[in-house]
């Protein structure tokens, strides 16, 4: 069974289409990144999964039920984009309160440990730093031991160090067989922390696969060398080349097959090739290519 | 839900604004006023001012507690995202507003009891046991319209606006309802305003009880009417605040 099933989901705000016929299945136990630029429809999709927003049309199922039912059953935990805590309550009090609202919560000490909050348990929320507050919000999201964890740009307010430990904690939670969906516009985050990347732009899925698959789907490789004063004529006809870019005395050949391009460069031209570099596609190139306004 | 109630009470007892306005103010003003005028006697009823002031200050404290503990915290929770945090848990929507109502009513009790205690200890006020129970019971149940008003404000306004509106509402109801100055000494225009306010009906039930009289039917109906009207408004405002678009 799928943890999440979107079928032809559209969400409009007046004339603005935030989510446009989204169809997406996410199997139980997977960790999926929703990658997309701001305004792509990631948050809208997450809010619809939680029943906070209603789709204009289409159908959403969470573990086979409607979102409201899934929330009522305690199947979902979420860390939404913004949200502060009750200032007068301590970390332990807030986490324990939310925890007890769920039918089958994790033990309090385990939640605190998984969110690196054991040492801060007695501190009041109004005495926490931004990064610490984010950790508490993560703790609130996992406190009920939800089968599905939704994270909407969870690391937005964190420094590099907190980010790393945050993802470690998330992976530990995922390792318990839970399904995790996180939205991000950080490419490395999607690459490093998910086993599947769904690229969303303009409310639609534009690519779906592992990070490696998405990279290879774009002609994102590049071969570049110092051209000097030599002519670039004929380079665009070489095997695999899709585009030729010249910047100062350097030429860059965009190619889907760098091996063939390099071979052709030496065998079929008489150019004096200096300072050759071959770049693999990174997810950033893939992402930009996929999400570019058509 | 009991744990939710516990959490709500805990946080308010740690809230300085609540403790100062609601717990300290009424007691301090009672001590001040009763030292100045406590021994005077009301000509019409023969009740000592120390007793009337006890009712007025307890009523003021309860009014302040009910509005202060509902309007602004609720507006803040809506804006800060805490409400959404609750909405994505299994806690049902009705439980949120019901708990808020119950918590506010519990938070009214310190004012009622402490003003009463101050009256007994400093002015040696003594009432028949039945009157004590009647007074505290009536002043306790009678705060329902004010809690409803506070929740309505909190549902409709953002915290920046809810704060002054709640303050004005609270002091306006207290002043015009005759909790700070007797309605009898007000100009006639103000007097006629006072008579339609729930705060006047509310306090007058208390004044009647300590005079040994039964509360006037008009006051009881007045409070009940306000409770129904403001309660309905609070429910509508809550629905509007939690609507899922």
What distinguishing features does this structure have?
A: Rossmann fold, Alpha-Beta Plaits, 6-stranded mixed sheet, 4-stranded antiparallel sheet, 10 helices, 30% strand, elongated, B: 245 residues, mainly alpha, 12 helices, 78% helix, 0% strand, ABC2_TM_bact-type (chain B), antibiotic resistance (chain B), ABC transporter (chain B)
Question: What topology emerges from the helices and strands here?
Answer:
The complex is a heterodimer of chains A (about 290) and B (about 240).
Chain A: E1 2-13, E2 16-27, E3 31-35, H1 42-49, E4 57-62, H2 67-72, E5 76-79, H3 91-99, H4 108-114, H5 130-143, E6 148-152, H6 160-174, E7 179-184, H7 187-193, E8 196-201, E9 204-209, H8 211-216, E10 221-226, E11 241-247, E12 250-255, H9 258-268, E13 274-279, H10 283-291
Parallel strand pairs in A: 3-7, 3-8, 5-6, 6-7
Antiparallel strand pairs in A: 1-2, 1-4, 8-9, 10-12, 10-13, 11-12
Helix pairs in contact in A: 3-5, 4-5
Chain B: H1 2-13, H2 16-37, H3 49-68, H4 71-80, H5 82-87, H6 93-123, H7 129-141, H8 144-156, H9 159-176, H10 188-196, H11 198-210, H12 217-241
Helix pairs in contact in B: 1-6, 2-3, 2-6, 3-6, 3-8, 3-9, 3-11, 4-8, 4-9, 6-7, 6-8, 7-11, 8-9, 8-12, 11-12
């Amino acid at each position: 069974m799928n943890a999440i099933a979107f079928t032809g989901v559209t969400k409009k705000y007046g004339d603005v289409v935030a989510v446009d016929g989204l169809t997406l299945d996410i199997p139980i136990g997977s960790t999926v990144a929703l990658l997309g630029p701001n305004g792509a429809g990631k948050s809208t999709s997450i809010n619809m999964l939680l029943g906070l927003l209603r789709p204009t049309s289409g159908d959403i199922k969470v573990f086979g039920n409607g979102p409201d039912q899934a929330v009522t059953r305690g199947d979902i935990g979420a860390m939404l984009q913004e949200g502060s805590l009750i200032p007068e309550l301590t970390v332990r009090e807030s986490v324990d309160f939310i925890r007890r609202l769920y039918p089958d919560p994790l033990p309090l000490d385990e939640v605190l440990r998984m969110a690196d909050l054991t040492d801060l348990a007695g501190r009041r929320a109004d005495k926490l730093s931004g990064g610490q507050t984010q950790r508490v919000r993560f703790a609130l999201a996992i406190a009920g031991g939800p089968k599905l964890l939704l994270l909407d740009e969870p690391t937005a307010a964190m420094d590099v160090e907190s980010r790393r430990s945050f993802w470690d904690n998330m992976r530990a939670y995922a390792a318990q067989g839970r399904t995790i969906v996180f939205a991000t516009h950080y490419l490395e985050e999607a690459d490093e922390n998910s086993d599947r990347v769904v690229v969303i732009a303009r409310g639609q899925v534009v690519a779906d696969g592992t990070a490696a698959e998405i990279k290879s789907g774009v002609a994102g490789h590049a071969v570049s060398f110092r051209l000097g004063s030599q002519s670039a004529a004929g380079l665009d006809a070489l095997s695999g080349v899709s585009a030729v870019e010249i910047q100062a005395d350097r030429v860059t050949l965009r190619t889907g097959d760098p091996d063939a391009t390099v071979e052709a460069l030496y065998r079929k031209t008489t150019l004096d090739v200096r300072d050759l570099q071959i770049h693999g596609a990174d997810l950033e190139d893939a992402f930009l290519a996929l999400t570019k306004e058509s | 839900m009991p744990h939710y109630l516990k959490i709500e009470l805990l946080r308010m007892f740690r809230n300085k604004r609540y403790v100062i306005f609601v717990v300290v103010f009424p007691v301090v003003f009672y001590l001040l006023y009763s030292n100045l005028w406590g021994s005077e006697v009301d000509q019409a009823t023969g009740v000592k001012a120390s007793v009337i002031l006890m009712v007025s200050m307890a009523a003021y404290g309860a009014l302040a507690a009910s509005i202060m503990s509902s309007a602004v915290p609720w507006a803040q929770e809506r804006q800060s995202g805490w409400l959404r945090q609750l909405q994505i848990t299994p806690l049902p929507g009705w439980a949120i507003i019901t708990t808020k109502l119950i918590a506010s009513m519990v938070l009214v009790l310190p004012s009622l009891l402490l003003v009463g205690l101050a009256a007994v200890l400093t002015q040696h006020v003594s009432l028949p046991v039945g009157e004590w129970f009647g007074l505290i019971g009536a002043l306790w149940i009678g705060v329902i319209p004010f809690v409803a008003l506070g929740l309505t404000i909190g549902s409709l306004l953002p915290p920046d606006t809810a704060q002054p509106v709640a303050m004005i509402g609270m002091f306006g109801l207290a002043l015009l309802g005759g909790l700070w100055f007797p309605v009898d000494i007000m100009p006639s225009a103000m007097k006629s305003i006072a008579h339609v306010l729930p705060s006047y009906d509310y306090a007058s039930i208390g004044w009647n009880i300590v005079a040994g009289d039964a509360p006037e039917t008009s006051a009881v109906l007045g409070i009940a009417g306000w409770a129904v009207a403001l309660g309905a408004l609070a429910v509508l405002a809550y629905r509007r605040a939690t609507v899922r678009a």
